[in-house]
Design brief:
The complex is a heterodimer.
Chain A lengths: L1 H17 L10 E4 L2 E5 L4 E6 L5 E6 L6 E2 L10 E2 L7 E3 L2 E5 L5 E5 L4 E6 L13 E3 L2 E5 L4 E6 L5 E6 L9 E3 L2 E5 L4 E6 L5 E6 L9 E3 L2 E5 L4 E6 L5 E6 L9 E3 L2 E5 L4 E6 L5 E6 L9 E3 L2 E5 L4 E6 L4 E7 L9 E3 L2 E5 L4 E6 L5 E6 L2
Antiparallel strand pairs in A: 1-2, 2-3, 3-4, 5-6, 7-8, 8-9, 9-10, 11-12, 12-13, 13-14, 15-16, 16-17, 17-18, 19-20, 20-21, 21-22, 23-24, 24-25, 25-26, 27-28, 28-29, 29-30, 31-32, 32-33, 33-34
Chain B lengths: L1 H21 L4 H15 L1 H27 L4 H15 L7 H22 L3 H8 L6 H4 L7 E2 L2 E2 L8 H17 L6 H22 L4 H22 L29
Antiparallel strand pairs in B: 1-2
Helix pairs in contact in B: 1-2, 1-5, 2-10, 3-4, 3-5, 3-10, 8-9, 8-10
Classes of the chains: A mainly beta, B mainly alpha.
Chain lengths: 363, 259
């Protein structure tokens, strides 16, 4: 029975070696007023005092609770986190979208669920953050569609279809919806007419969130190129090659786009021409989205180092170091940068000094 | 760990993605071809292991006789057994070496299939650090998950693959399972003959079906190789054999020999 001698240890081996999966990507967060919102690893929407990290209230969102996903490497060992995208706030509504394929609208005043979409069943996994414009909610789905919902009642106002999964947070500007899709294309839709304005084909999946800025749309692709295309006509203006995929959302500030790449760099490119002004090698992949704080751009590497770039001089320095890895998008308010780590800690860091204001567990 | 990734894991992952690109973006076929290639590379080891196992199996009647003859003297028994092994040119541990080498390869193959499927953001991020700087590789990700009726990232909804995994594993084990030296061993053999296929079929119910394809193809290749070494072995009912002579094949079924 020597075959069993191979098969049995093999089974044990693969269950141990193959299933010791990576730590989960935490959701980002958002600050509104003095309240910070995020979704905990157990699937609860948490409201926190942004000044000291004290928990104000939390609401369990049943459909966003973590679940095992198919496979031996899921099962009891790897659990898909509840939420990847950051919740968004609009008035007294907080919107949180889950990997389980459900979008929740929570009333911040009553602390109850206002509605959930879909009411029955689920759509494809929701990875990006919801985007709120004029009271309407836009959310991309792994079923290849972007859903446009009425923020008050959660009714579907429109659907925009692509040929692949939409994991990237969509962008909306001047009545146009910009979408990156796994079908290797970036799309622009007229929100009013629901018609496709253009599509732009790249050489790889577009997982990085597109950014619209000064008449151009910036879309990073798995072909390792960042494309700048005309926001209205979808014509390529320039492209910039990196050494690995683009994953995090770029930020734009004073005519310069700051683009994170998994090749460890953040590139500062002139927005109009694509000319490289500087590159900042963080020493490990930059998968989280940077954030603009005053005249600075703050970015974090996967190995937990947070850097600050002075956009005036293009000088940069190390700001902070976390123990846990960082993959969640950074967010900021009133000169404070909030950093969510893979070991489920949330750090509040003063952006100029790098001083830790507080850090709390986000379980 | 980094050596493991660089020397074993990454070449496997990248080969798998190249195959996917070359085979018209069909990941199911890519897994099947890749599994066959890996089995082909390991063929010399597999053959060595099978021949060693078969030689051991062929010696069992003689060992049994010796056990009866020297039941009261363990020292003498072990001496005579070693002598018998030596005369037959068999190393009792001969099949373990190839097995030990194959095990990490199989684990790496398994990990590669799981890694390349990359269905969640964190899996994709991890995969990004394992890909070579070849456009044919990094542009191909994420892979299309559809194959026949399957979504390769999810378990088979119609339970065809769990049945195939269990059945092919049972056949392969049945071919190599020989008569035990004592009733206890025989009992254990028949328990393992059923337990492993049932366990693997059960796990396949939860595995991504891409992995189940790997298991089925790997088992089928194993059966074919086994057939060419030992014939159908103990799979077919054995005809009654009076006394095995030195020139006869002790196991039932046809016997071919690879040289």
């Amino acid at each position: 029975m020597r075959y069993s001698l191979v098969a049995f240890p093999l089974l044990i081996g693969i269950l141990i070696a193959g299933c010791a999966g990576p730590s989960a990507v935490s959701s980002g967060g958002t600050v509104s007023g003095n309240t910070l919102y995020f979704v905990s690893s157990s699937g609860s929407l948490v409201a926190m005092d942004a000044s000291n990290g004290n928990r104000l209230w939390s609401l369990a969102l049943e459909g966003l609770q973590p679940r095992a996903t198919g496979g031996a490497c899921s099962g009891p060992v790897t659990v898909t986190p509840a939420v990847y995208g950051a919740p968004q706030v609009d008035g007294d509504r907080i919107y949180a979208a889950g990997y389980s394929g459900l979008l929740y609208a929570v009333n911040a005043t009553t602390r109850t669920v206002a509605w959930r979409y879909p009411r029955e069943g689920r759509v494809g996994s929701l990875v990006g953050s919801p985007v709120i414009v004029d009271g309407n909610v836009f959310i991309g789905s792994s079923d290849g569609k972007v859903y446009m919902l009425d923020g008050v009642m959660g009714e579907v106002l429109g659907e925009f279809s692509t040929g692949g999964k939409v994991w990237a947070t969509v962008a909306v500007a001047d009545g146009i919806l910009y979408v990156g899709s796994f079908d290797k294309k970036a799309y622009a839709f007229n929100i009013a007419t629901k018609e496709k304005m253009w599509e732009f084909e790249t050489g790889g999946a577009v997982a990085a969130s597109p950014v619209a800025y000064e008449g151009l749309v910036y879309a990073g692709s798995f072909d390792r190129d960042l494309y700048a295309v005309g926001a209205k006509d979808g014509m390529e203006k320039w492209r910039f090659s990196a050494g690995n995929w683009y994953w995090g959302r770029p930020v734009a500030h004073k005519g310069v786009v700051y683009v994170p790449s998994l090749d460890h760099n953040v590139y500062a490119l002139r927005a109009a021409s694509g000319e490289k002004l500087a590159e900042f090698d963080g020493g490990s992949p930059v998968s989280s989205s940077p954030v603009v704080v005053g005249d600075n751009v703050v970015f974090a590497t996967e190995k937990g180092t947070v850097y600050l770039i002075d956009t005036g001089t293009m000088g940069w320095r190390k700001l902070y170091q976390t123990v846990g890895h960082i993959r969640s998008p950074l967010f900021a308010r009133n000169g404070v940068v909030y950093v969510q780590t893979q070991d489920r800690n949330l750090h509040a860091v003063e952006a100029q000094s790098g001083n830790k204001l507080w850090a709390v567990q986000t379980n | 760990m980094e050596i493991w990734n660089t020397l074993i894991q990454e070449p496997m992952i990248n080969t798998l993605v190249v195959l996917y690109s070359v085979l018209f973006g069909n990941f199911g076929v890519a897994i099947a071809v890749f599994t066959m290639l890996v089995r082909l590379v390991m063929l010399p080891l597999t053959l060595r292991q099978l021949r060693s196992s078969k030689a051991m199996s062929d010696l069992q009647p003689k060992i049994k006789e010796l056990q009866k003859k020297y039941a009261k003297s363990k020292d003498k028994l072990s001496q005579e057994m070693m002598k018998a092994y030596k005369e037959a040119g068999v190393n009792p541990l001969g099949c373990l070496g190839p097995m030990v080498i194959q095990l990490p390869i199989w684990i790496a193959l398994y990990q590669s299939v799981v890694g390349v499927l990359a269905t969640t953001p964190e899996q994709l991020l991890n995969l990004s650090q394992r890909l070579y700087s070849w456009p044919i590789v990094y542009q191909a990700i994420p892979l299309k998950e559809d194959f026949l009726w399957l979504n390769l990232a999810n378990p088979d909804p119609y339970y065809v693959l769990p049945v195939l995994v269990g059945a092919t594993m049972w056949v392969q084990q049945k071919m190599v399972s020989g008569p035990g030296m004592d009733p206890r061993q025989q009992q254990m053999n028949s328990m393992m003959l059923w337990m492993m296929p049932v366990m693997f079929a059960f796990f396949t119910l939860q595995f991504p079906s891409g992995l189940a394809i790997y298991w089925v193809v790997s088992n089928v290749v194993g059966i074919v190789v086994q057939y060419f070494v030992t014939g159908w072995g103990h799979l077919l009912p054995r005809a009654p054999v009076a006394v095995p002579s030195k020139t006869e094949t002790p196991a039932g079924g046809s016997r071919k020999r690879l040289t």
